[in-house]
Amino acid sequence: MAKTVIIGTNHAGLAAANAILDNSDQEVVMIERNENFSYLSCGTALWVGKQIDGVDGLFYTNREDFEAKGAKVRTQTTVESIDFDGKVVHAITQQGDKVEESYDKLVLATGSIPISPKVPGRELENITFMKKYEEGQNIDQMFENENVKNIAVIGAGYIGVEMAEAAKRRNKNVLLFDALDRCLPNYYDTWFTDDMDKNLADHGIELHYGELVKEYKGSDKVEQIVTEKGEYDVDLVINAIGFLPNNQLAKDHLELFANGAYLVDRHQQTSDPDVYAVGDCATVYSNALQGTTYIALASNALRTGIVAGENIAGNPVESPGVQGSNGISIFGHHMVSTGYSVESAAKFNLDVKYTDIEDTQKPEFMKENDSIKLRIVYETGSRRIVGAQMSSTTSDISMAIHMFSLAIERQVTIDELGMLDLFFLPHFNQPYNYINKAALAAE
Ligand SMILES: Cc1cc2nc3c(=O)[nH]c(=O)nc-3n(C[C@H](O)[C@H](O)[C@H](O)COP(=O)(O)OP(=O)(O)OC[C@H]3O[C@@H](n4cnc5c(N)ncnc54)[C@H](O)[C@@H]3O)c2cc1C
Ligand SMILES: NC(=O)c1ccc[n+]([C@@H]2O[C@H](COP(=O)([O-])OP(=O)(O)OC[C@H]3O[C@@H](n4cnc5c(N)ncnc54)[C@H](O)[C@@H]3O)[C@@H](O)[C@H]2O)c1
């Protein structure tokens, strides 16, 4: 019987395991360093910001679910090295016992590692990342402590903005830093981030943009952070300046992308045909870019896991690629985006134009009505849609961004979108939907 070993059993590894176990009778061995399975870090800010009742719902499966399907599950076991010629994985248990597993196919699902700012004082206590469940527990306890008053969040990307909101909801003084001059610069244009920055400031979050941390000061615990512009008293620092792929185990054996991610094809196969890579440790194919890139998202982890699992199970499945669709909701202000913003398109050398609309979602006579901002980004020559960004106080916009994701995948042009049949009912829409209106107004 063919045997597959999966290293890392968070979202990507679990999806791969399910796909193999559900579609074949292969032997599957799952190896995971942590004790827990399937921690949805996406819900951390909701948990530590006390918007949900506790952490329990953030785990969606457990080892028993996989053992019931016939998998051998090794938790609290760390893979130390892989013999790619002999096809053997070498691991060590928390008790120090050496473990070996041979394989026919190997799935690398080792995820990502938060980037560590290389500044003096980084070894001080009360400086943390926010990725693992244990880090969430630690932050939750720190928020509970009344002596912990001043929180510095470094990086105003997705994690940073969500953690800043969570800390504010726990009545802390929050200082949010970013190297660039605004929040969420990787996902949205200024037209959107200006509103989010106002929202953050209106809720009492101190914004320190374009301000790099140079040093952490303190005796045992961090007490101050020093930037180019000043010195601030802090009791807790949360570092959130991005992820790097965790390529430790195979970086000397496999072909890598520019940032070190395992380079995979549309079947999630690496440069070694018996080794697949999925989730945050691997590249993705971007339909907007029409090329390979790196986008660390749970949604990508799940889909890439399924693709690898199906292929290993014997069903040749090709990934349709991704758009990097994402969303954020802070103090009731929702923003969603897919593909590239105008700014990020420029970084990837895509020549684009855009069309904007600011409108109410429903006809003016409707009582409950939210205003919506939409920007559609399209390629100058081909006119295919390569991105969209939306913001509103209604979560309905999340459904609209899914349509833009499909439009990018299917290479729909801005002109085709103008005449797209979008229904009208006052409860939902205006007679001319804002999407049609924006597309028809395109240059
Ligand atoms: C706070 C936070 C909020 C987020 N919110 C969202 C969101 O709202 N939406 C979204 O799409 N994405 C979100 N993300 C990103 C998302 O969590 C990641 O993209 C996703 O976790 C990637 O899944 P993965 O399985 O590839 O990797 P990981 O989750 O990194 O899991 C990798 C696993 O491999 C194990 N492992 C690594 N090395 C070894 C080894 N040598 N031996 C054994 N085991 C090993 C690790 O212990 C880990 O369990 C968020 C991330 C964070 C931190
Ligand atoms: N809602 C969601 O979909 C969601 C939520 C959380 C995390 N995630 C994903 O998890 C991954 C990691 O999130 P993240 O927030 O760490 O990364 P990010 O890329 O979203 O943001 C990192 C931020 O740090 C800033 N930065 C970089 N170096 C800096 C420095 N030295 N000093 C100050 N600022 C610096 C960048 O300008 C950027 O704004 C991303 O792929 C993200 O998309 C997604």
TrEMBL record:
It is an enzyme of class 1 (oxidoreductase). It catalyses: 2 NADH + O2 + 2 H(+) = 2 NAD(+) + 2 H2O. InterPro entries: FAD-bd_OxRdtase, FAD/NAD-bd_sf, FAD/NAD-binding_dom, FAD/NAD-linked_Rdtase_dimer_sf, NOXase, Pyr_nucl-diS_OxRdtase_dimer. It comes from the Bacteria. Its EC number is 1.6.3.4. Its cofactor is FAD. GO terms for molecular function: oxidoreductase activity. Residues 335-429 form the Pyridine nucleotide-disulphide oxidoreductase dimerisation domain. Residues 3-305 form the FAD/NAD(P)-binding domain. Keywords: FAD, Flavoprotein, NAD, Oxidation, Oxidoreductase, Redox-active center. NCBIfam families: NOXase_Strep (NF046103). Belongs to the class-III pyridine nucleotide-disulfide oxidoreductase family. This is NADH oxidase.
